[in-house]
Amino acid sequence: MKSSTDHVRIHFGGDTLFSGKVADKMTQNGADYPFKYVKDLFQKDDLTLLNLETPVTERGTGAKNKQFVFKSHPDALKAMKKAGVDVVNLANNHTLDQGTEGLLDTLSHLKANGISYAGAGKDSAEAYAPVYVERKGIKIAILGFSRVLPEMSWNAKAGRPGIAGIYNEDLKLAVQSIQQARAKASIVIVVAHWGKERVTKADELQNSIAHAFVDAGADLVVGGHPHVLQGVEQYKGKWIAYSAGNFIFTKATGRPQTWDTAVFEADCKTTGQCDLKMIPYFTEIGQPIPKSAADGAKLLKSIEKLSPGIKIDASGNLKSLAPNTSLGFNSSKSTSAEQKDLTQENSG
């Protein structure tokens, strides 16, 4: 049963896949295994969004020259839908791991399971376009964009399937799409794939892009890709969560920061104003598990330290003590940043 109050409750989870060791866990324990501890949240809210960090296909040709290449079985989407997931972001550096064939299969399987998607498509018009959902008469727009591409051929173009990249001039397409969504929807959500892996502090490029998204009309910006949680910022009254970390994922031995995650819970009004809360979880192989009260408190405190001007109470509720406090970036730009994040090899 969905919430019946006068606002919409939205949950966000981080990087999600059903490949490799996660698939093994699902074979052993059932397809519903990843959602055991989150389905109650997701089934009772108004909208749930995840970053789907894998193509979903039984076909395709694996991408070359990548350290990690993913592929997930379509049956996983049935479990995802049953657990209450409504929308996924596809703008990331794994959606084309099985080539164009795998991407198009992913789109078809999502449609067949009644799961909406943003950030990829059969061409640039579809990839950059918002997906609209309506809850309680409130129109919500969701857009997805990636600042992490293994190669530029993954970028959707006219007549070419791909994802919504935000390099160079394509960032303008993203801004225009957000502006168009702002004119049509009460709430505008942007899911971004960006940053550097296993780095807990968001960088200047993430900061400037996030601010551009809010300036264009985004009410919420939620990021992924670093595989760790990053800080949270309130800019012009709008929340930016720079990285939601891993969610349904494998578990990197010896990298405990990648084992921390959270479900972000937003309560939003028709004006686009949202309250934000973090619910701490531990990322086990293929399954987010609630943290104990003590461990959850430690996690919240660590995120508070990464978030200047933000206070997180014992229940995970976020409050801005000094509106528009930035994360401490200066105004200078790195001339090499444009190329550094394009050429790096990324696992998620």
Give your account of this protein's structure.
- The chain is an alpha/beta fold and 348 residues long.
- 26% of the residues lie in helices and 26% in strands.
- The chain contains nine helices and 18 strands.
- The strands form four sheets. Strands 1, 2, 3, 4, 13, 14, 15 and 16 form an eight-stranded mixed β-sheet that branches.
Main attributes of the structure:
disordered C terminus; globular; alpha/beta; 26% helix; single chain
Helices and strands, with pairings:
Blueprint: E1 8-16, H1 21-29, H2 39-44, E2 47-52, H3 75-82, E3 87-89, H4 99-112, E4 116-118, E5 120-121, H5 124-128, E6 131-135, E7 138-146, E8 162-163, H6 170-184, E9 187-193, H7 204-216, E10 220-224, E11 232-235, E12 238-241, E13 246-248, E14 260-268, E15 274-284, E16 287-290, H8 293-305, E17 310-312, E18 318-320, H9 337-343
Parallel strand pairs: 1-2, 1-13, 2-3, 3-4, 7-9, 9-10, 10-12
Antiparallel strand pairs: 1-14, 5-8, 6-7, 11-12, 14-15, 15-16, 17-18
**Total beta strands:** 18
Radius of gyration: 18 Å
| SSE pattern | EHHEHEHEEHEEEHEHEEEEEEEHEEH
Characterize the overall form: globular
User: What structural category do the secondary elements indicate?
Assistant: alpha/beta
Terminal CA distance: 33 Å
Q: pLDDT average, as an integer? A: 92
Number of helices: 9
User: How would you characterize the largest beta sheet?
Assistant: 8 strands, mixed
Fraction in beta strands: 25-35%
Low-confidence stretches: 330-347
Helicity level: 25-40%
